[in-house]
Design the sequence.
C-alpha cells in the first residue's frame, strides 16, 4: 500500500488548493482591513482646498460620523467613483470629507466645479503627510469614522453603490449615523 | 441575425464536442471501430462551427452592431478596423470564444496529423479533448455568451480598454491562448495513456512535437506581453510578477520541464509517471490561470470583470478536469515502473535536476501568487506578495539550473560521460568569469556581485551552447533538427540571462520634473525637454512631449513620448519614447503636468534590455526547429537506438 501513497500526493495537494480557491471565491480581495480599524482616526489640520487661509482638521469633525475620502485629480479611480460619491452625498446619510492628496489646488478646484462637489469640506494635502498618517496606499481610499472618532471601515479602490450598501450602510445604521 | 447564427453555431459545436467525447472514449473502451472513427468528423464539425461562431462575432464588431452587449462593451464607432477585430478577444466572453476556437483547432490538428497512432489511443485523445472543449463551451453558453443582445441597442459603444489598443497586445492574447490551450494536447495524451494503462513510451514521442508547439506559442505570447508592458505602461518595467503574468509563467516553466522529461521518457523509458504528472500539471496550471484571471479571487491590474457565478463554474470545471486526471493518475501510475538505471552525471540525471529546479521555481511562484489567498482564507489578514519575494525566489533555482544546463547539454545517456567538451569545462567557466568581470568593470564601471554572477552564467550558457557547432567547424550537415532546436533554445536562455542581468544590475532610473529647455543627464546622455504640444489620433487626443537626446553635445535622436486621452474616457495612457541600440535603451515617459510648463518625467537607462526578448524569441525558435524534427513524423518508432557515447543531436531538449 505504501508505494501507492506517493501517487496520492498530487491529488491531495489539489484538494487542498481547491478548498482555498473555494473560500477565496466568497471574498472580495480589494476589501483590505486597515490596522486603523477600531482605533481612533489620526489627528490632522490642513489648509482648506477652497481657501488657503482657512483650516480643516479633526476639530471640525468632532462628535460627528463622517466619510473620509482620499482623492486626486491625477487618479483614474477617483474619476470613476465620483458619481457614487455624489449620490452618497445627496442621500444625506453622512457628510463626506475629502483629502485632496498630492494634487494641484487649481486643478482640484476645477475638477469639483466641473464634476460637482460631493464634499462638505476638502483638506488640501499636497505633500501627502496626512495621507501617510492614515496609512493610505493609493487613491482612492475611503474611511468611515464614527462620531467618537473611531475608524469603522476602509475601502481601497473606487467606491461604488454596491460596496456602499453592502459594507458601509449597515455600519452606519448600526451605530447611529448622523442622518 | 448574424449574432444569433453565431450563438446557434456555438450550441452545435457543444453538441459535437459531446459527440466527440462520447464516441472517442466509449468507442475506444468498447472497441467499436465505427464509433471510434466517428470521433474524427465530430472534431471537424466542431471546428467548423466554432470558426463560424467566431466569424459571426468578428462580423458584429466590423459592422458596429451595438445591439450585441459584448460589442457595445468593448468597441465604439471611432475604433479603427484592426482594433475592432482585436476587440473580439478584448473582453472575457470573446476571449473565451477564441480559447474554444483554438482548442478545436488543436484538436483537428491532432486528428489530422496523428496517422501513426493506433486508432483506440487516438480516439481516446480526441475524447479527452472533447470533454475539455465541452467544459469551455458550456461555460460560455451558460455564463458568458458573447452574443447576448442589448435591448434597446446602445447608440454608441463603450470602447476597447485603451490599454489594449496596441498591436503587440492585440496579438498577445491569441498567442498566449494558443500556448495555454496547446498544453491540452499533452494533457489528453497523458490521460489517454493513463486510461489505457499503456506501459510503453510511444506516447512520449507522439506528444513531443505538440508540447513543443504549445510551449513555443506560450513563449511568444509571454514575450509580447512583456514587451507591451515595457513601452505601454510607462514604468519601464518588463515584468511585474502580477498574478496574471504569473498565471502564464507557471505553465511555461512546467511546459519547459515537460519538454525535457518527455525526451527522457521517449529515449530511455524513464520518469514515466513523472512525465505524465508534468503533462497533467502544465495544462492544470493553464486552467488555474484562467480561474485566477476570471474569478476575481486575486487583485490584478489585468483582471477581467468578475462575477462569482463564473468563478464557481470554472472552479467546478477545474475540479472535474484536473481532479479527474489526478484521480486517474493516482489509480494508474503505480503500475508504471521504470527498470533502467542511470549514473549520476548522465543525461538522465541532468534532466532530473532540470525538472526538479523548474518545478521548484513553479512551486515558489505558485506559492507567492496564492499566498495572499491562503492568508485571507485563514483570516490572517490581507497581504500582497511583490517583486522582492519573486525576484529572490526565482533566482534561487535559476542560477544552479543555468550552471547545470551548460554541462547537461553535453552529457550522454545512461553513463557519466561528458562529450568532447569535458576537459574544457574549467576553461569555459573561467573564461566566463573573467569576461563577466571585464564587462562589469569596463562597460558598466562597477563590479557588482549579482551582476558578475549573472553575466558569468549567461556567458557560460551561451558558450556551452555554441561549443558543438563551433567544434564541428563547417561540418554541420546531417545534424538533426532536434540538435539545432536545443542549441538555439539554450543560446536563447543565455541571451535572456544576459538581458536580465544587464537591466537588473546596471539600470539607472530617474523621476524628475523638467520645464521646457531643461536638460537632465543620465549615464553620459543628455535629455533635453523641449516642451509639449497637442496631437490628435483617430480616437484619442494626446499630449506629446519632445525630448532631444544627445551625447557629448551632439544630438542624435528626438523622442516623442505621449500621454493619450481616449475619447471614451478612462485613464490617460502612456506611450513611452524609446531609443534602442543593441547595448542599451533610453526610455522617456511623460508623467504629470505640474503646471507652468513643467512636467514630471521618467527617464531611464536600460542596458541590454533587448536581449530579454531576443533570448525569448530564440527559445521559441528553438522550439519551432525541434518540433519539425523528422523523427516525429516517422511511422515506425525510432526509440531502439538510444546513442550511448556521442551526444550528437539526440538530445534532451
Sequence:
Amino acid at each position: 500500500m505504501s508505494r501507492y501513497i506517493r501517487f496520492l500526493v498530487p491529488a491531495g495537494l489539489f484538494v487542498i488548493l481547491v478548498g482555498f480557491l473555494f473560500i477565496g471565491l466568497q471574498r472580495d480581495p480589494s476589501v483590505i482591513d486597515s490596522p486603523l480599524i477600531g482605533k481612533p482616526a489620526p489627528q490632522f489640520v490642513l489648509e482648506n482646498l477652497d481657501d488657503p487661509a482657512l483650516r480643516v482638521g479633526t476639530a471640525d469633525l468632532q462628535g460627528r460620523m463622517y466619510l473620509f475620502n482620499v482623492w486626486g485629480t491625477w487618479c483614474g479611480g477617483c474619476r470613476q467613483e465620483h458619481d457614487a460619491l455624489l449620490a452618497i452625498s445627496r442621500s444625506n446619510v453622512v457628510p463626506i470629507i475629502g483629502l485632496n492628496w498630492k494634487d494641484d489646488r487649481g486643478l482640484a478646484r476645477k475638477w469639483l466645479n466641473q464634476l460637482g462637489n460631493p464634499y462638505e469640506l476638502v483638506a488640501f494635502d499636497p505633500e501627502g503627510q496626512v495621507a501617510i498618517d492614515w496609512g493610505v496606499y493609493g487613491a482612492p481610499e475611503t474611511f468611515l469614522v464614527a462620531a467618537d472618532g473611531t475608524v469603522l471601515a476602509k475601502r481601497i479602490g473606487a467606491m461604488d453603490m454596491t460596496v456602499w450598501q453592502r459594507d458601509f450602510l449597515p455600519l452606519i445604521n448600526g451605530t447611529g449615523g448622523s442622518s | 441575425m448574424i449574432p444569433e447564427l453565431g450563438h446557434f453555431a456555438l450550441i452545435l459545436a457543444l453538441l459535437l464536442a459531446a459527440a466527440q467525447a462520447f464516441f472517442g472514449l466509449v468507442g475506444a473502451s468498447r472497441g467499436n471501430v465505427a464509433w471510434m472513427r466517428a470521433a474524427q468528423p465530430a472534431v471537424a464539425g466542431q471546428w467548423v462551427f466554432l470558426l463560424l461562431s467566431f466569424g459571426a462575432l468578428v462580423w458584429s464588431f466590423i459592422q458596429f452592431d451595438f445591439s450585441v452587449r459584448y460589442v457595445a462593451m468593448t468597441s465604439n464607432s471611432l475604433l479603427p478596423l484592426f482594433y475592432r477585430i482585436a476587440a473580439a478577444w478584448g473582453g472575457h466572453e470573446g476571449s473565451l470564444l477564441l480559447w474554444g476556437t483554438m482548442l478545436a483547432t488543436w484538436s483537428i490538428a491532432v486528428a489530422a496529423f496523428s496517422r501513426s497512432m493506433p486508432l483506440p489511443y487516438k480516439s481516446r485523445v480526441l475524447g479527452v479533448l472533447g470533454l475539455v472543449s465541452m467544459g469551455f463551451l458550456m461555460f460560455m453558453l451558460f455564463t458568458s455568451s458573447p452574443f447576448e443582445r442589448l435591448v434597446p441597442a446602445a447608440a454608441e459603444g463603450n470602447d476597447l480598454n485603451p490599454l489594449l489598443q496596441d498591436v503587440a497586445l492585440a496579438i498577445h492574447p491569441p498567442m498566449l491562448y494558443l500556448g495555454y490551450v496547446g498544453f491540452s494536447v499533452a494533457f489528453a495524451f497523458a490521460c489517454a495513456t493513463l486510461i489505457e494503462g499503456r506501459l510503453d513510451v510511444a506516447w512520449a514521442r507522439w506528444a513531443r512535437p505538440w508540447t513543443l508547439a504549445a510551449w513555443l506559442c506560450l513563449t511568444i505570447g509571454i514575450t509580447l506581453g512583456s514587451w507591451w508592458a515595457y513601452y505601454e505602461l510607462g514604468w519601464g518595467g518588463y515584468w511585474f510578477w502580477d498574478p496574471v503574468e504569473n498565471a502564464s509563467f507557471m505553465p511555461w516553466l512546467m511546459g519547459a520541464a515537460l519538454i525535457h522529461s518527455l525526451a527522457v521518457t521517449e529515449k530511455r523509458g524513464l520518469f514515466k509517471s513523472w512525465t505524465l504528472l508534468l503533462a497533467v500539471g502544465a495544462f492544470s496550471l493553464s486552467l488555474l490561470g484562467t480561474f485566477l484571471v476570471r474569478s476575481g479571487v486575486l487583485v490584478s491590474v489585468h483582471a477581467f470583470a468578475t462575477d462569482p457565478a463564473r468563478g464557481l463554474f470554472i472552479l467546478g470545471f477545474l475540479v472535474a478536469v484536473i481532479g479527474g486526471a489526478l484521480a486517474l493518475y493516482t489509480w494508474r501510475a503505480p503500475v508504471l515502473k521504470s527498470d533502467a538505471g542511470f549514473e549520476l552525471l548522465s543525461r538522465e540525471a541532468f534532466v532530473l535536476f532540470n525538472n526538479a529546479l523548474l518545478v521548484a521555481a513553479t512551486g515558489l511562484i505558485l506559492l507567492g501568487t496564492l499566498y495572499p489567498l491562503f492568508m485571507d482564507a485563514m483570516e490572517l489578514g490581507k497581504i500582497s506578495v511583490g517583486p522582492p519575494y519573486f525576484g529572490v525566489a526565482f533566482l534561487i533555482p535559476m542560477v544552479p539550473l543555468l550552471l547545470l544546463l551548460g554541462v547537461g547539454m553535453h552529457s550522454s545517456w545512461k553513463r557519466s560521460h561528458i562529450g568532447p567538451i569535458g576537459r574544457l569545462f574549467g576553461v569555459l567557466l573561467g573564461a566566463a568569469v573573467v569576461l563577466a568581470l571585464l564587462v562589469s568593470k569596463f562597460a558598466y564601471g562597477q563590479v557588482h556581485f549579482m551582476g558578475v554572477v549573472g553575466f558569468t552564467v549567461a556567458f557560460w550558457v551561451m558558450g556551452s551552447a555554441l561549443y558543438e557547432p563551433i567544434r564541428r567547424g563547417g561540418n554541420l550537415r546531417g545534424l538533426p533538427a532536434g540538435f539545432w532546436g536545443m542549441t538555439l533554445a539554450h543560446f536563447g536562455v543565455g541571451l535572456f540571462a544576459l538581458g536580465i542581468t544587464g537591466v537588473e544590475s546596471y539600470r539607472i532610473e530617474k523621476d524628475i520634473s523638467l520645464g521646457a529647455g531643461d536638460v537632465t543627464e543620465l549615464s553620459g546622455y543628455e535629455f533635453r525637454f523641449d516642451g509639449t504640444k497637442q496631437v490628435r489620433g483617430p480616437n484619442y487626443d494626446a499630449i506629446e512631449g519632445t525630448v532631444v537626446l544627445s551625447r557629448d553635445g551632439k544630438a542624435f535622436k528626438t523622442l516623442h513620448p505621449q500621454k493619450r486621452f481616449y475619447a471614451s474616457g478612462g485613464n490617460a495612457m502612456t506611450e513611452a519614447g524609446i531609443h534602442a541600440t543593441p547595448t542599451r535603451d533610453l526610455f522617456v515617459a511623460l508623467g504629470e503636468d505640474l503646471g507652468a510648463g513643467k512636467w514630471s518625467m521618467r527617464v531611464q537607462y536600460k542596458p541590454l534590455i533587448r536581449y530579454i526578448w531576443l533570448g525569448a524569441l530564440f527559445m521559441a525558435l528553438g522550439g519551432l526547429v525541434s518540433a519539425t524534427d523528422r523523427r516525429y513524423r516517422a511511422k515506425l518508432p525510432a526509440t531502439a537506438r538510444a546513442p550511448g557515447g556521442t551526444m550528437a543531436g539526440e538530445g534532451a531538449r
About this structure: Residues 300-305, 636-653 of chain B have pLDDT under 50 and may be disordered.
